[in-house]
């Protein structure tokens, strides 16, 4: 349950939406690159922070307004315009609702507006040229990282680069 932070796991088939924290300790030695991804949906609020105050903290908590509601208060992928769209998976081989499995989906603007420091579509970092390509991942030179589930904080992390224009 998204509001009570119950236990459980995703089914990886689009049936169970889930929030995802991603960490890469190998890309830059002595550093960690991290992000919050909502590409597969949302089921639990989270915050990524560092003991180094110069590193950005990322947080995402969605309390209401989910465009495609899932089980137990979760939200389906921004790539899906309906529950049936997510049935073959949040990112099905045919591209689903996110352009070429890279660009924005029909509900990416909602996710981007709610959690602007989280991936709202697969290429939210700009790697394939889709926009907005905003501050969705961060490399911290301190590997002492904390992931907090159900943090009680919202997406009030300062916006680094903000663009509301979506190119599909």
Describe the structure in your own words:
Pfam families: Thaumatin. This is Osmotin, thaumatin-like protein. It comes from Athelia psychrophila. There is one protein chain. With 168 residues, the protein is mainly beta. It has a single domain, classed as Thaumatin. The chain is built from 2 helices and 7 strands, in the order E-E-E-E-H-H-E-E-E. It has helices spanning 83-86, 108-114, and strands spanning 20-24, 32-37, 46-50, 58-60, 118-119, 137-140, 145-149. Strands 1, 2, 5 and 6 form a 4-stranded mixed beta sheet that branches. A 3-stranded antiparallel beta sheet has the order 4-3-7, with no helix packed on it. Mean pLDDT is 79; it is low at 159-168.
- Per DSSP, the total helix count is 2
In angstroms, what separates the terminal alpha carbons? 32 Å
Order of helices and strands: EEEEHHEEE
Tally of separate domains: 1
Binned, the helix content reads: under 10%
Q: Please describe the biggest sheet, giving its number of strands, its sense, and whether it closes into a barrel.
A: 4 strands, mixed
Uncertain regions: pLDDT < 50 for 5+ in a row? Answer: 159-168
Beta-strand portion reads 15-25%
Count the strands? 7
Shape: globular
CATH topology: Thaumatin
The residue-averaged pLDDT reads 79
CATH class: Mainly Beta
CATH superfamily: Thaumatin
| Radius of gyration from CA coordinates | 15 Å
**Helix/sheet category:** mainly beta
Protein name: Osmotin, thaumatin-like protein
Pfam family, one: Thaumatin
């Amino acid at each position: 349950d998204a509001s009570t932070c119950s236990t459980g796991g995703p089914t990886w088939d689009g049936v169970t939406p889930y929030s995802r924290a991603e960490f890469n300790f190998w890309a830059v030695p002595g550093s960690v690159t991290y992000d919050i991804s909502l590409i597969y949906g949302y089921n639990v609020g989270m915050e990524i922070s560092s003991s180094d105050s110069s590193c950005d903290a990322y947080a995402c908590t969605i309390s209401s307004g989910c465009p495609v509601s899932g089980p137990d208060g979760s939200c389906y992928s921004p790539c899906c315009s309906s529950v049936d769209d997510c049935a073959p998976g949040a990112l099905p081989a045919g591209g689903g609702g996110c352009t070429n499995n890279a660009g924005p989906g029909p509900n990416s603007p909602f996710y981007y507006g709610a959690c602007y420091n989280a991936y709202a579509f697969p290429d939210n970092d700009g790697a394939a040229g889709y926009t907005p390509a905003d501050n969705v991942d961060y490399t911290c030179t301190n590997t002492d990282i904390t992931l907090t589930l159900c943090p009680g904080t919202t997406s009030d992390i300062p916006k680094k680069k903000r663009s509301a224009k979506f190119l599909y």
